[in-house]
């Protein structure tokens, strides 16, 4: 019952499965003990009836009182344990699940993040886990515990009097059948609601991220109208979904309660024909109230279970996506990067084909080519941010597809155009380059990256918080911080993606000074659009439409008169372009 399928179905951790078992056991016990309470009531009634009809003396109070006290005590203790095993333990499950999902996401190949965007994944980590928390704490244990206790009670009733038992229990399978029959409908409407919710989060995130562009193009009214529409759609499908589920749950509950009427009818008929006495009918009526009580609650719970299946599936999908794996033991002979007949496709679109080149240790290898020719893709593959679909990439003679990405990336520093900074102090943002670096080492790296001067001007120097994604810094300052990080890491391979593209002349000179310190003696793979930047490279690989068009030293390529030369000439023409020429 609680095997692997169960675990996957409800996206539970191993501990979560153990907790659910405990919750089920205690719910089972609680239901039986409460049923025992009904037994005491029945006994009391039986004795009273004897007194009234047969004139027997009233039963002695102490044993009955003892029984009641025992019942209260047992009931209290089992409820307490049930509470602990469901609500208490499950709150840890939420934390454990979020951590294990985050851990899994950390290891997934970048390609996965193209399939599910940020808002979608945030919705899983926050919304879906929250929804499942309610299922784990309020549903699973109760439901499975109630299944077991009802099955046991049903068997006892059937043995005792099968006709009355059928009269009182027939509604249970019919009600459940109705809910299970409409399960697909609930799941589909829940999926619609979920998609609409993700569209709303996407819209809000996009609006916040692009607030500058929206204002600059006077699109506020149009954009907000679009967002409003998404919110209205979400509201509509949510109401439709809840209405649909509500109708089925209430119908199932009414059907189940019809069992009381049939029990009375069958019971009355059998009393009249002298087959049973009134006390037996009374016993069955007492028992069915207890059988229905947990199931009444369960019907709503089952509906919730169906609706929440979409959330569980979205979490399980993360667990089931294969992670980029490999050996943690990475000991290359040197750090030459060798591409051999590398091919790559994003989904089905092939963007690299038969790419071969070597970026040697101690040299700067520049990747150039028209926009969309595959330069950034090559850099991503070189760091195993994605895996090549054809050919091999080696670093120091080791095929990188066999190396654990985390172990591999210890040997890489990356400086990209879009620098990512965290909402923390300058000091901690640079220290990300090498955890455990001393304050002094951070300062030395910052000075070498020409950061010292602007950091000293900040109100609290190195201890100044820089806002979300470094909002309080200029483009050049952000880029120099990322170079300081790379200097601190001092990895043997440096990947540079158009690092100086968006800077003014003064900043560019400062960044370039910092870069030359960073690059000395390393294997450097640089993606550059400006031919001026790459004229000093040792080797240039020219990509065109996903293939290597030509490669060699800048002088060789100039002499060859191919694509590289054309690009150099085109850029020197455009360098003379001025605003008034438009
Ligand atoms: N995540 C992605 N999913 C799908 N296609 C992508 C993705 N990233 C890039 N591409 C496509 O792959 C091709 C190569 O892109 P790539 O970014 O490597 O080129 P590039 O030479 O670096 O371009 P640019 O100089 O404009 O940055 C392009 O056609 C691009 O549209």
Automatic annotation (TrEMBL):
Pfam families xref list: ABC_membrane (PF00664), ABC_tran (PF00005)
Subcellular location: Cell membrane
GO terms for MF: ABC-type transporter activity; ATP binding; ATP hydrolysis activity; ATPase-coupled lipid transmembrane transporter activity
Record-annotated membrane-spanning stretches: 25-44, 64-80, 139-158, 164-182, 278-295
Residue ranges of every copy of the ABC transmembrane type-1 domain listed in the record: 25-305
PROSITE patterns, per the entry: ABC_TM1F (PS50929), ABC_TRANSPORTER_1 (PS00211), ABC_TRANSPORTER_2 (PS50893)
Span of domain ABC transporter: 337-570
Membrane topology according to the record: Multi-pass membrane protein
InterPro entries xref list: AAA+_ATPase, ABC1_TM_dom, ABC1_TM_sf, ABC_transporter-like_ATP-bd, ABC_transporter-like_CS, P-loop_NTPase, Type_1_exporter
Keywords (A to Z) from UniProt: ATP-binding, Cell membrane, Membrane, Nucleotide-binding, Transmembrane, Transmembrane helix, Transport
Protein name according to UniProt: ABC transporter ATP-binding protein
Native source species: Evtepia gabavorous
């Amino acid at each position: 019952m609680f095997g692997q399928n169960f675990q996957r179905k409800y996206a539970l951790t191993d501990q979560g499965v153990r907790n659910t078992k405990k919750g089920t056991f205690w719910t089972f016990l609680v239901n039986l003990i409460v049923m025992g309470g009904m037994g005491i009531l029945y006994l009391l009634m039986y004795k009273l009836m004897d007194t009234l009809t047969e004139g027997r003396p009233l039963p002695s109070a102490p044993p009955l009182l003892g029984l009641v006290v025992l019942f209260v005590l047992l009931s209290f203790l089992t409820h307490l344990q049930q509470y602990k095993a469901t609500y208490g333990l499950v709150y840890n499950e939420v934390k454990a699940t979020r951590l294990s999902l985050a851990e899994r996401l950390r290891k997934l190949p970048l390609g996965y993040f193209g399939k599910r965007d940020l808002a979608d994944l945030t919705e899983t980590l926050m919304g879906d886990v929250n929804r499942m928390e309610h299922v784990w704490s309020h549903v699973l244990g109760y439901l499975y515990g109630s299944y077991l206790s009802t099955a046991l009670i049903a068997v006892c009733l059937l043995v005792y009097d099968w006709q009355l038992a059928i009269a009182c229990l027939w509604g249970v399978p019919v009600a459940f059948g109705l809910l299970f029959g409409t399960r697909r409908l609930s799941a589909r409407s829940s999926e619609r609601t979920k998609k609409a919710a993700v569209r709303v989060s996407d819209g809000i995130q996009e609006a916040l991220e692009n607030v500058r562009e929206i204002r600059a193009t006077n699109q506020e009214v149009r954009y907000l109208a679009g967002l409003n529409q998404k919110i209205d759609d979400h509201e509509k499908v949510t109401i439709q979904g809840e209405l649909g589920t509500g109708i089925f749950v209430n119908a199932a509950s009414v059907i189940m309660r019809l069992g009381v009427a049939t029990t009375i009818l069958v019971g009355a008929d059998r009393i009249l024909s002298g087959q049973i006495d009134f006390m037996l009918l009374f016993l069955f009526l007492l028992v069915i109230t207890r059988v229905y009580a947990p199931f009444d609650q369960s019907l709503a719970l089952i509906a919730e279970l169906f609706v929440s299946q979409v959330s569980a599936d979205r979490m399980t999908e993360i667990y089931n996506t294969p992670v980029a794996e490999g050996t943690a033991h990475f000991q290359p002979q040197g750090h030459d990067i060798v591409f051999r007949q590398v091919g790559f496709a994003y989904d089905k679109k092939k963007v690299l084909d038969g790419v071969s080149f070597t970026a040697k240790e101690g040299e700067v290898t520049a990747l150039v080519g028209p926009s969309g020719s595959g330069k950034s893709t090559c850099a991503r593959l070189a760091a195993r941010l994605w895996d090549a679909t054809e050919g091999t990439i080696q670093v120091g003679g080791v095929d990188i597809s066999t190396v654990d990405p985390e172990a591999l990336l210890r040997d890489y520093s990356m400086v990209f155009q879009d620098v990512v900074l965290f909402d923390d102090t300058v000091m901690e943002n640079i220290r990300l380059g090498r955890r455990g670096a001393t304050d002094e080492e951070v300062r030395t790296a910052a000075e070498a990256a020409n950061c010292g001067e602007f950091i000293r001007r900040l109100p609290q120097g190195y201890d100044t918080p820089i806002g979300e994604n470094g909002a309080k810094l200029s483009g050049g300052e952000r880029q120099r911080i990322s170079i300081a990080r790379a200097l601190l890491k001092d990895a043997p391979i440096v990947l540079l993606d158009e690092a100086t593209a968006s800077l003014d002349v003064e900043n560019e000179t400062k960044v370039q000074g910092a870069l030359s310190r960073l690059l000395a003696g390393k294997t450097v793979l640089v993606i550059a659009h400006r031919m001026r930047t790459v004229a000093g490279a040792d080797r240039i690989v020219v990509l065109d439409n996903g293939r290597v068009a030509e490669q060699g030293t800048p002088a060789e390529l100039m002499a060859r008169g191919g694509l590289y030369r054309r690009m150099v000439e085109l850029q020197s023409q455009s360098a003379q372009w001025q605003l008034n020429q438009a």
